[in-house]
Amino acid sequence: MRHFKVKAMVQSLDISAITGQQADAEPSKRSKPSALRRTLQALRQRLTKRNRPKPPDWFLEKFSNTTNTDKIGKGCPAMEDAALSSEIRGSSVLCNRLSVDPTLQSHYRWLAIVSLAVLYNIIFVVGRAVFWEINKSAPAVWYTLDYLCDFIYLLDTLVHMHEGFLDQGLLVRDAFRLRRHYFHTKGWYLDVLSMLPTDLAYIWWPPETCSSLYLPCPVIVRLNRLLRINRLWEWFDRTETATGYPNAFRICKVVLAILVLIHWNACMYFAISYEIGFSSDSWVYNLNGTRNNTLQRQYIYSFYWSTLTLTTIGETPTPENDVEYLFVVADFLAGVLIFATIVGNIGSMISNMNVARVEFQNRMDGVKQYMAFRRVGHELEARVIRWFAYTWSQSGALDEERVLAALPDKLKAEIAIQVHMDTLKQVRIFHDTEPGLLEALVLKLKLQVFSPGDYICRKGDVGKEMYIVKRGKLSVVGDDGITVLATLGAGSVFGEVSVLEIAGNRTGNRRTANVRSLGYSDLFCLAKRDLWETLSDYPEARSTLTQRGCQLLRKDGLLDEQIFADSQRVHDSIEGGIEKLELSVENLNMRLARLLAEYTASQAKIKQRLAKLEMNGGPGTWRLECEPQTRARSGRLYSLQPKRRPRSRPDATAKSSDAAKQNTL
């Protein structure tokens, strides 16, 4: 028996090792002794029946992966859990610390540093390869900057290799998985090519040989550094998403692209002038003269010529040979295509910058045309125009509902809470209420703007909304419209009791005063329908708000206690009746389910009996055996059916009538 147990244990170990071979193939290559040690330790524990760990739960492993790797990344001590040790696959704690969260601000700053290094190579590698005076001016500075950029490239490769990615919505921090994911992408090819030590060509091609007689300069071997440009685009995308002025940033990015293209084209013009021969004709660069030999003159003239050619807005020297003609034609075509695209993009960006203003102006023009068509008075027309002007100056005619429509409800609620929660907490009836109720009500608030002299509500109107003053001054006036009874400012609330529909309210849920706007006022409005739709999900909060509304009415002497008590009793009786009705419906459902079950069982029994009868004998036997059952069954059916009188046949009726006549005669 002992032999069979040990054999079964060894077989289970072999099966587990075979199943885990594919998942742990690469880690086992890296740490075979540790894997062998863990296997022997597990075998010893199984044979001695000591410290036997529980089988790992795949569900818990899946959802605790991120937590475990986070703890390892933060340098927590080694853990004794066997599942965790198998999860990290033998990798060291130092390697697991190499995980970078791409959403952090530090990662964005690092991308900015890498972008500066890439931009340096884009501009100066090409320029130094053609204009020899740049290399001779400060060689030590250029060497320092070149190898500093190479060091940044090396660090960026390590960072790029360990950048986290999302797997099923969770950020992966395991260093081994990050490296494996990195090498499965196409970006690592460009990273490796951009770091190739092409500077070794300086050994047989020293940079000092660069002059007007030998072009291009040896620094041309560093062109592979331009392959890291994808990190520059990544930083541009991150900046465009994070900045508050995306259109202005897009314009700056396009201008930078134009300048780089003109710079490269100027370098190509200078290199072609060298190939053809400086000062050989009127098209190439004229190197004669002390002024033309300076770096400043060479670059400025080449840049000027490149700008005129690519933009096609000026006259350039006429080409004199085939190479010059081909280069100018290629420049013209490239200029037409590139700058047509660039100008179109800039035009769309500028139009997008003013799209809100144009849309607002169109709406205002439509209202003006309508008022002119309907012959509205000049005074009212001026008030409407002033309202439009105030709305634009305060919020830019921003439609919050349309802007936030693309966001999920959770994010919309969080934004609304940060913007409007302090305003909603100022309402007395909402003090100390459930946070969920306030979050639901925040989404229901709507901003309304009133012009000077507008009445927010009049005395006797049915209260359908409550108002919270955000900005401006309101006055409570008498019936004459002159006497000012009170003044309301920012944070004031009115109409909160009328939206609760409390029975016994002596005002009958109607407004008790006239409220008028002194100047331009911004008010948050909460409709009664929205409030009750939200309170339907919070019955406890509904009763609490009703009690607080009753307290406010009692304080002002506006609550009829008798009517309120009667309404509460009616409400309680209705609730009790509803509960009884629900109980009776549940009982009926149970009885109906029981009857259906009995009916189904009887049907199954009848089918079984018929099948047995068909299997036992022929038709005669079946007929004889079925007759008693049929009679009995027909007797049962007959007892359930209403009795009918037998109809007499017409012949028998005629005979009986003739016999009766003869007897009478």
Automatic annotation (TrEMBL):
Keyword annotations of the record: Coiled coil, Ion channel, Ion transport, Ligand-gated ion channel, Membrane, Transmembrane, Transmembrane helix, Transport
Compartment annotation: Membrane
GO CC, alphabetical: intracellular cyclic nucleotide activated cation channel complex; plasma membrane
Gene3D superfamilies associated with the record: 1.10.287.70, 1.20.5.300, Helix hairpin bin, Jelly Rolls
Region of interest called Disordered, as start-end residue ranges on this chain: 633-665
Biased composition (Polar residues): 654-665
Residue ranges constituting the Cyclic nucleotide-binding domain according to the UniProt record: 429-535
UniProt topology in membrane: Multi-pass membrane protein
GO molecular function: cGMP binding; intracellularly cAMP-activated cation channel activity; intracellularly cGMP-activated cation channel activity; protein-containing complex binding
Keyword Transport recorded: yes
Classification via CDD domains: CAP_ED (cd00038)
Highest taxon listed in the record's lineage: Eukaryota
Coiled coil start-end: 578-616
InterPro entries recorded: CLZ_dom (IPR032406), CNG_cation_channel (IPR050866), cNMP-bd_CS (IPR018488), cNMP-bd_dom (IPR000595), cNMP-bd_dom_sf (IPR018490), Ion_trans_dom (IPR005821), RmlC-like_jellyroll (IPR014710)
Protein name: Uncharacterized protein, isoform A
